[in-house]
Prior knowledge:
With 281 residues, this protein is of the alpha/beta class. The chain has 10 helices and 9 strands. Helices cover 36% and strands 17% of the residues.
Amino acid sequence: MTRAAPQLSSDLKVATRRSAIPEGLWMRCPSCEKLLFRKQVAANLHVCPHCGHHFRIDAVERVRQLADENSFEVKFDRLRCGDPLEFTDRKTYPDRISSEQARTGRMEGVYAGTAFIKGRPVVLCCLDLTFMMGSMGSVVGETITRSIELATDRDLPLIVTSCSGGARMQEAGLSLMQMAKTSAALARFDDAGGLFISVLTDPTTGGVTASFAMLGDVIFAEPGALVGFAGPRVIQNTIRQELPEGFQRSESLLTGGMIDRIVHRKDLRTEIGRLIDYAGK
């Protein structure tokens, strides 16, 4: 006699079906709330194919999208911060830096170097939101300053993509000093006739907004990017009033004359190349 195969319980059937679908294949768009195939989003430059929502990306991916293939040459990647304030919150500052390095595989919150964009030589500097929220400490400020000085010395256009939570609180006044240092370097770059294209992405806030990010000769922003000094929640709690729709987003900044153009991620390389040609660089 042949025995009948044992029947799987309904719970076991569901578990079996679920285990056949690997984790992390799908994601939900926070704007249109559609379920998206993660690989399709990545192929679309990390932009929602339905509503055009621009997802946040790290500095390495930003460089990959902007720079011509195999043209990026890393600079200033050996800079390391100290701990002169001996700052401790839930952990010491050196321990926090070490854990961020282990988690992200990056040494700091910025990625800088020389590159070609559409065949045009540039100095490209990208803040990295995945490393301590792209906060600007002494290493980030020094890297940006050296990038500006490199662009000045070589008479190259400077491209900086910003995404940051602002100055790094673990370095207190040292991080605030980077605002003045980067701004002074940009003033010298401007005196030398340099072209600075600032690209604002979501979010660009705090001391980064209050310094180099808003000092571009031309300021581009991605659609829907949050750009401001204090965040909207802080402002609303301070003034105790409802904020208008789209407050501190790229579209409202364009209307107010704070930025020059909103550029979709797929068009950014082309627009940068055109601007460099127009400026005669």
